[in-house]
C-alpha cells in the first residue's frame, strides 16, 4: 500500500473501508420462487421442491398445443418423479372449478397451480406453452417456448444434470 494511503487512513477508517468493501462484493443471485394455490386452494411453494429438478410449465385451457403436451408432461412426471417434479401453472383467469375438468380428462397427477394470469417474477412468459427448468438449488437454468415431449424433457434433464455435475 502506498505510504500516503497508509498514513491517511486511521484504524477506524480502515475498518470502515474494509466493511464497505465486504458489502460491495456481489451477492449470489437468489433463485426463483413462488407460492400459488393448487386446485384445492392449498399453497404450493416452489422452494418446497429444493433438492430435485423442477419443470415449471405455463399453460392455458384455450391453448391447443398446451393441452396436447400435457400427456407428455404426465409421462415424464411419472417416469422421473424421484429426480424431477412437474408443476403446471395455469396462466388464465379461471377458477379451480373450471380447471379441474381439463386436469381430470387428461389424467394429470402432477401439481397444478393457478396464477390468475398474473406474471410471476423470474418467469417471463412470451407465449404459451412455456416450460422452465429449475435446478435443485432453485436457479432457473433453461426456458423453452413451445411444446415439449417426454423424450425432449428426458434429454434436456440429462444435459442439465451433466452440466451441473448432478447426473444420476
UniProtKB/TrEMBL annotation:
Keyword Zinc-finger: no
Keywords recorded for this protein, A-Z: Redox-active center, Signal
GO MF annotations, alphabetized: antioxidant activity; disulfide oxidoreductase activity
Listed InterPro entries: AhpC/TSA (IPR000866), Thioredoxin-like_sf (IPR036249), Thioredoxin_CS (IPR017937), Thioredoxin_domain (IPR013766), Thioredoxin_ResA/DsbE_sf (IPR050553)
Pfam family, one: AhpC-TSA
Thioredoxin domain boundaries: 25-162
Signal peptide: 1-29
Superkingdom of the organism of origin: Bacteria
Keyword Cytoplasm belongs to the record: no
Protein's name according to its UniProt entry: Alkyl hydroperoxide reductase/ Thiol specific antioxidant/ Mal allergen
Native source species: Candidatus Contendobacter odensis Run_B_J11
Phylogenetic lineage: Bacteria, Pseudomonadati, Pseudomonadota, Gammaproteobacteria, Candidatus Competibacteraceae
Amino acid at each position: 500500500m502506498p505510504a500516503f494511503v497508509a498514513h491517511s487512513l486511521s484504524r477506524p477508517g480502515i475498518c470502515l473501508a474494509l466493511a464497505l468493501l465486504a458489502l460491495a462484493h456481489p451477492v449470489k443471485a437468489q433463485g426463483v420462487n413462488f407460492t400459488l394455490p393448487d386446485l384445492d386452494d392449498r399453497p404450493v411453494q416452489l422452494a418446497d421442491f429444493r433438492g430435485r429438478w423442477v419443470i415449471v410449465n405455463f399453460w392455458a385451457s384455450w391453448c391447443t398445443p398446451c393441452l396436447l403436451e400435457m400427456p407428455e408432461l404426465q409421462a415424464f412426471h411419472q417416469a422421473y418423479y424421484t429426480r424431477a417434479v412437474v408443476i403446471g401453472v395455469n396462466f388464465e383467469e379461471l377458477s379451480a372449478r373450471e380447471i379441474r375438468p381439463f386436469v381430470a380428462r387428461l389424467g394429470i397427477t402432477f401439481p397444478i397451480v393457478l396464477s390468475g394470469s398474473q406474471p410471476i417474477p423470474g418467469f417471463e412468459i412470451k407465449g404459451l406453452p412455456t416450460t422452465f427448468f429449475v435446478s435443485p438449488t432453485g436457479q432457473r437454468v433453461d426456458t423453452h417456448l413451445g411444446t415439449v415431449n417426454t423424450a425432449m424433457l428426458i434429454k434436456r434433464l440429462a444435459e442439465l444434470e451433466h452440466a451441473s455435475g448432478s447426473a444420476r
